[in-house]
Amino acid sequence: MNFFLSLAHAQAEAPAPAVPGQPVGAPGMIAQLLPLIFIIVIFYFLLIRPQQQRQKQQRDLLNSLQKGDEVTTIGGIKGIITQVKEDEVTVEVANNVQMRFAKSAIASKKSQ
């Protein structure tokens, strides 16, 4: 029992700082924050940044839609744009068969 008490008293005593005026726990705190900062940086470059780039590419695609573009919808329907409005497009999928889609439903395009 005395052994455990002497260990507890030994842990309570803090060593004197090597440099006067420097806090004892500062290097330990920085060392504890570095892995967290590293994880945040990894998440940014592996998850957040690529998602922002995909969103920008999709936004640019939707803004560049023009009459005559061959498009594919998110449902897999392929056709040629016959009319572009502010938030929707009309796509001709067969002779005299036209369908209206929201612009956000366009997945890709092939310009002619």
Describe this structure in words.
- This protein has 112 residues and is α+β, with helices and mostly antiparallel strands.
- 44% of the residues lie in helices and 26% in strands.
- The protein contains two helices and five strands.
- The protein has a five-stranded antiparallel beta sheet with strand order 4-3-2-1-5, covered by helices on one side.
Strand and helix layout:
Blueprint: H1 2-12, H2 26-63, E1 70-73, E2 78-84, E3 88-94, E4 97-102, E5 106-110
Antiparallel strand pairs: 1-2, 1-5, 2-3, 3-4
Brief overview, please?
The chain has helices spanning 2-12, 26-63; strands spanning 70-73, 78-84, 88-94, 97-102, 106-110. By secondary structure, it is of the alpha+beta class.
Bin the strand percentage: 25-35%
SSE succession: HHEEEEE
Low-confidence stretches: none
Helix content: 40-55%
The whole-number mean of residue pLDDT values reads: 84
Give the class-level CATH name.
Mainly Beta
> How many strands appear in the DSSP assignment?
5
Distance between the first and last residues' Cα: 86 Å
Largest sheet: spatial strand order: 4-3-2-1-5
* Architecture per CATH nomenclature, i.e. the level-2 architecture: Roll
- Characterize the biggest β-sheet: 5 strands, antiparallel
> What would the CATH topology be?
SH3 type barrels
Please indicate the count of domains: 1
Class derived from helix and strand content: alpha+beta
Radius of gyration: 31 Å
| Anisotropy-based shape | rod-shaped
What count of helical segments does DSSP give? Answer: 2
